[in-house]
Write a structure and sequence with these properties.
The protein is an alpha+beta fold and 181 residues long. The chain is built from four helices and five strands, in the order ααβαββββα. The protein is 27% helix and 15% strand. This is FAR1 domain-containing protein.
Length: 181
């Protein structure tokens, strides 16, 4: 590389265009919270990608994948919260929720801890509950879209969230090749 090459010469030549406006999203977050932002993002995505009560899935993993894709578009991560099984071990129902759902339990060792971890849960209500009792398929029985107590992430940054971080098979093989050499 030449010594006189500046940083400006190394910037990408092409910019990607997205369907949302980050300044508008910041304004929505500042003026009315995430409810208006969720409604704005729901207007962008197609109706079949928004969870609805009564939707059916073949298995729990299909429901998780569907809700995770929805969460990626809206701008939050998800986690598997509660699970109930029958006597045979078959899943009766499952709740997928926002990672900010609930509150941390009181720890009996609090007085002995020098530096506490930051509080990450703040009572968010966003969740999707599936039930598979009646039929062999899992059905959405409740869905809450509203988030409270935390901000949503813009779609350009959702790949940093835990449930959306993934590595493709091609990148994994490339990493293995680099490790072996």
């Amino acid at each position: 590389m030449d010594k006189d090459t500046s940083i400006h010469d190394l910037t990408p030549r092409r910019k990607l265009a997205f369907e949302f406006d980050e300044e508008k999203e910041e304004e929505l977050l500042g003026n009315g919270g995430s409810e208006r932002l969720i409604n704005e993002r729901h207007s962008i995505i197609s109706e079949e990608k928004i969870p609805k009560i009564g939707m059916e899935f073949d298995d729990e993993e299909a429901a998780y994948t569907f809700y995770n894709e929805y969460a990626k578009v809206v701008g939050f991560s998800i986690r598997k919260h509660a699970l109930r099984r029958d006597n045979k071990g078959t899943i009766i129902d499952r709740i997928f929720c926002c990672p900010c759902q609930g509150h941390r339990q009181k720890d009996k060792r609090d007085v002995h801890v020098k530096s506490h971890r930051p509080e990450t849960r703040n009572g968010c209500l966003a969740m999707m509950r599936i039930d598979g009792r009646c039929t062999g398929k899992y059905k959405v029985v409740s869905f809450v879209a509203s988030h409270n107590g935390h901000d949503l992430v813009s779609p350009t940054k959702t790949h940093f969230l835990r449930s959306h971080r993934s590595i493709t098979a091609a990148l994994a093989s490339q990493a293995d090749d680099l490790d072996s050499s």
